[in-house]
C-alpha cells in the first residue's frame, strides 16, 4: 500500500479536501510573498509565475498521473514542484511557506514510504541551497538554517509515517471486510445448499410416505385380483379393482398436494381423527386386518403436528401390512394438557433380532425428532408397539 492511500478516494483519486488544501495553501503562500518587503520586483514576478505554473501543472500532471497510474507524469510534476518551491524560498523569506505545500504534495503522490523520504530530502536540500545563496547568508547563519529546515524535514517524515500507518490500518480493515464478505457469501451458499438438500430429503420422504406406499398397495391389490380372476372369482376381483381405483385416486390427490406444497390430502378435507379412520378403513379393506382406532381427548389443531402424527400412523400401518403377518391392529391417539401420544400396536410376529431401520422408519424418527418428540419401536409380545410422544405447540413454545 502507498503511504498516501489514506488520502485517496475508493476510485484511486485524491479526496476533494486535499485538492482544496493545495490551492488554498498555495494561494496564501503567494499572497504572503506579495506583502514581503525583502524581494525585488523581478524575482517576485518569477516566483509568482512559478507558483502559477505549479497550480496549473497539478491537475494536468500530478493529479492525472495519480489517477491513471502514469508515474512519468507524477515524476515530472515532482521535479517542477521542487524547482518552484526552491526558487520561491530563495527569493523571499516567506517563500519557505511553500514547503508545507511541497511536503503534502510529495506524500500524496509518492507510491511508498521510501520514495516519500527521498523526495522530501531532495526538496529540503534544494531549499537549503537556494535560501543560502539567494538570501546572501553567511556561514554563521548556516546552523540556524540547517536547524529550521531539519525541523521541516522531520515534520515531513512524521507526517509520512502517520499517513503510512493510517493507510496500513485502512488496508487491514479492507482486507477484514473482504474476508467478512467472502465468509458471508460462502455461508449463504452453504445455507442455500443445505436448504436444497433438506428440501430434497423432505420431498423424498413425502413421496415415500404417500405415493410409494400407495403404489405398493396397487401392486399387491393387482396381484390379488389377478390370482382371483385366474380362479374364476370375479366378484372379489372386481372389489379389488375398485380398491385399486380408490388407491390410485388417493395417490393422485397426494401428488397434487405435493405439487401445490400442501400437507396430506386427507387433512385438506377431514380433521385428524377422521383422516386416521379413513386410513385404517382402507388398510382393513385391502389386507383384511382388523384396525381399531381410539381417540382420547381433543385432537391437536396444530397443522404441522397433525402432519407428523398422520405420517407416523401411515408408516406404522404400512410396515405392519408388509412385515407383521398380523390379524389385528390397535391405533390410539391420546391428547393430554401438554403432550400427545400416538400408539400403534399389532399382534404379529414382532421384530427380528437383527432388524434395522429402513427408509420409512428413519423418516419417521426424523419427523418426530424435528417436532421435538420421541419415538419408541419395540416388541410387545405379541407383535410390535410403536409409541410416539410429542409436545403440544404451547408446551414447545
Provide a descriptive summary of the structure in words:
By secondary structure, the protein is an alpha+beta fold. The chain is 70% helix and 9% strand. Among the domains are: 5-137, no CATH class; 270-397, Histidine kinase-like ATPase, C-terminal domain (Heat Shock Protein 90), CATH 3.30.565.10. The protein is built from 12 helices and 5 strands. The chain has a 5-stranded mixed beta sheet with strand order 1-2-3-5-4. Strand 1 (290-296), helix 10 (303-324) and strand 2 form a beta-alpha-beta unit. Helix 3 (71-91) packs antiparallel against helix 4 (98-109) and helix 9 (272-287) packs parallel to helix 10 (303-324). The longest helix is centred in the middle third of the chain and has 89 residues, at 142-230.
Q: What is the gist of this entry?
A:
This protein has 12 helices and 5 strands. It is an alpha+beta fold.
Could you outline the blueprint of secondary structure elements for this entry?
Layout: H1 16-35, H2 41-68, H3 71-91, H4 98-109, H5 113-134, H6 142-230, H7 234-259, H8 265-269, H9 272-287, E1 290-296, H10 303-324, E2 328-335, E3 339-346, H11 359-370, E4 374-379, E5 384-391, H12 393-396
Parallel strand pairs: 1-2
Antiparallel strand pairs: 2-3, 3-5, 4-5
Amino acid at each position: 500500500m502507498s503511504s498516501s492511500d489514506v488520502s485517496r478516494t475508493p476510485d484511486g483519486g485524491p479526496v476533494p479536501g486535499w485538492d482544496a488544501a493545495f490551492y488554498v495553501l498555495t494561494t496564501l503562500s503567494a499572497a504572503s510573498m506579495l506583502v514581503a518587503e525583502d524581494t525585488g520586483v523581478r524575482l517576485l514576478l518569477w516566483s509568482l509565475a512559478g507558483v502559477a505554473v505549479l497550480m496549473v501543472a497539478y491537475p494536468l500532471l500530478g493529479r492525472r498521473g495519480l489517477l491513471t497510474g502514469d508515474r512519468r507524469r507524477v515524476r515530472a510534476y515532482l521535479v517542477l514542484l521542487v524547482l518552484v518551491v526552491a526558487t520561491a524560498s530563495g527569493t523571499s523569506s516567506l517563500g519557505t511557506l511553500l514547503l508545507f505545500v511541497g511536503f503534502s504534495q510529495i506524500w500524496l503522490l509518492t507510491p511508498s514510504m521510501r520514495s516519500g523520504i527521498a523526495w522530501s530530502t531532495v526538496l529540503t536540500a534544494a531549499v537549503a541551497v537556494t535560501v543560502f545563496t539567494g538570501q546572501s547568508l553567511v556561514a554563521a547563519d548556516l546552523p540556524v538554517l540547517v536547524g529550521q529546515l531539519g525541523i521541516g524535514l522531520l515534520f515531513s517524515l512524521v507526517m509520512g509515517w502517520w499517513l503510512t500507518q493510517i493507510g496500513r490500518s485502512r488496508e487491514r480493515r479492507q482486507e477484514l471486510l473482504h474476508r467478512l464478505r467472502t465468509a458471508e457469501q460462502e455461508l449463504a451458499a452453504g445455507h442455500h445448499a443445505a436448504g436444497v438438500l433438506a428440501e430434497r430429503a423432505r420431498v423424498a420422504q413425502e413421496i415415500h410416505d404417500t405415493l410409494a406406499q400407495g403404489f405398493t398397495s396397487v401392486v399387491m391389490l393387482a396381484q390379488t385380483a389377478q390370482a382371483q380372476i385366474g380362479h374364476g372369482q370375479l366378484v372379489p376381483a372386481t372389489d379389488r379393482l375398485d380398491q385399486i381405483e380408490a388407491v390410485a385416486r388417493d395417490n393422485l390427490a397426494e401428488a397434487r398436494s405435493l405439487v401445490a406444497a400442501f400437507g396430506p390430502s386427507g387433512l385438506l378435507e377431514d380433521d385428524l381423527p377422521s383422516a386416521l379412520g379413513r386410513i385404517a378403513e382402507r388398510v382393513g379393506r385391502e389386507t383384511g386386518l382388523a384396525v381399531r382406532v381410539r381417540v382420547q381427548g381433543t385432537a391437536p389443531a396444530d397443522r404441522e403436528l397433525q402432519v407428523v402424527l398422520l405420517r407416523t400412523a401411515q408408516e406404522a400401518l404400512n410396515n405392519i401390512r408388509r412385515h407383521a403377518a398380523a390379524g389385528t391392529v390397535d391405533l390410539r391417539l391420546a391428547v393430554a394438557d401438554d403432550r400427545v401420544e400416538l400408539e400403534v400396536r399389532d399382534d404379529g410376529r414382532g421384530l427380528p433380532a437383527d432388524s434395522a431401520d429402513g427408509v420409512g422408519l428413519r423418516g419417521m424418527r426424523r419427523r418426530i425428532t424435528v417436532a421435538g418428540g420421541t419415538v419408541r419401536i419395540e416388541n410387545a409380545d405379541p407383535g410390535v408397539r410403536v409409541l410416539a410422544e410429542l409436545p403440544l405447540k404451547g408446551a414447545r413454545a
